[in-house]
Write a structure and sequence with these properties.
The radius of gyration is 21 Å and the shape is elongated. By secondary structure, the chain is an alpha/beta fold. The chain has 2 domains: 227 residues, Rossmann fold (3-Layer(aba) Sandwich), CATH 3.40.50; 147 residues, 3-Layer(aba) Sandwich (Rossmann fold). It has a 7-stranded mixed beta sheet, sandwiched between helices. Strands 1, 2, 3, 4, 5 and 6 form a 6-stranded mixed beta sheet that branches. The chain is built from 12 helices and 15 strands. The longest helix has 21 residues.
Length: 414
Amino acid sequence: MRHRSLLILTSVLTTGALTLTACGSRDDKGGSGGGDGNGGGGTTVVIGVDAPLTGSLSALGQGIKNSVDLAVKTANKNNEVPGVTFKIEALDDQAVPASGQANATKLVGNKDVLGVVGPLNSGVSQQMQGVFAAANLAQVSPANTNPALSQGDNWGKGEFKRPFKTYFRTAATDVVQGKFAAQYLFKDAGKKKVFVVDDKQTYGAGLAAIFSAEFKRLGGQVVGTDHVTVKETDFSSTADKVKSSGADSVYFGGQYPEGGLLSDQIKKTGAKIPVMGGDGIYDPAFISASAEANDGDLATSIGYPVEKLDTAKKFIADYNAGGYKDPYAAYGGYSYDAGWAIVQAVKSVVQANGGKLPSDARAKVTDALGKVSFDGVTGKVSFDEYGDTTNKQLTVYKVQGGKWIDVKSDTFNQ
């Protein structure tokens, strides 16, 4: 993750209060809900947040919400957009697509919302994109990795078409992550026979397919495949298949609740082989879910380790000082930068309109997001023609001594 120790566009915003327009409302009470603000009157701009704030993935969702909250508080404290007080409206999707769609409708209905950060899950995002696009409301996900969200359903055939111009993301796609994982497992870890498992969800199945194709292209062998069901706990039949396959490794496309149990049950069969997955398993809960020692298990995650980035020092310090109950987790820095990208887009729109929000602020903010560029917590934050991040940095982590330890960071160039 990264912080975002404030980025500064080259030109200075016109000072002076913004006038009330069709988007954004006059607020005479100052900030609340993330608004530690510049106080006084002015225009309120709301940044929506959608994430699983309850349920099995809430540790990630709370980190997303808190990090956007920190971005908003930082913008207000520094008077980043004179005359504007930013607030957040955070909604819980519980990692359920229908809930995400309902939340998208609610956020669209709030005229003060000029951008939304989220969601966590690619499957949830599929149900939200159209709602936002119909309202010209920009969405920036800090965690979605399914390529189809930005490049269309035929991306795998080399046919790239952006479905929604309102969709952006600060996370690298599974094309990058899946290939990076396959190259590490085959070349660095020296594994040649992998058993591939997925959870049948948009994220997990897509990631597993990309990994498998690259692993085979490199000369590796996929010796078996299987599927598990989300929220189930007995994966013993899959574990037995892994054991009998003769695999020297397992790749799991899915999230940490199932991944940790799968690793545990594979190792209980006597198959002492590593389980590897994507950023969905990169969480301490993956380790704690296994009663068996799972040292040697692997995960990829987007970006470089936030704790080792100079650009993240202020984010970490500010987050720790913010009194948040939950950690920023795997997507905190990306969430901060997603929120900050929206702040910068609003700043650009206001500046171009003589110090006030235009009546078509949502459409203008969407256009401005495509041109945003700043030094974020995990590196340069900018978007390509599909709304994808231009930052292709990734890290492989290994479980050692009951903790995730980074073992390789690199920029993906293929």
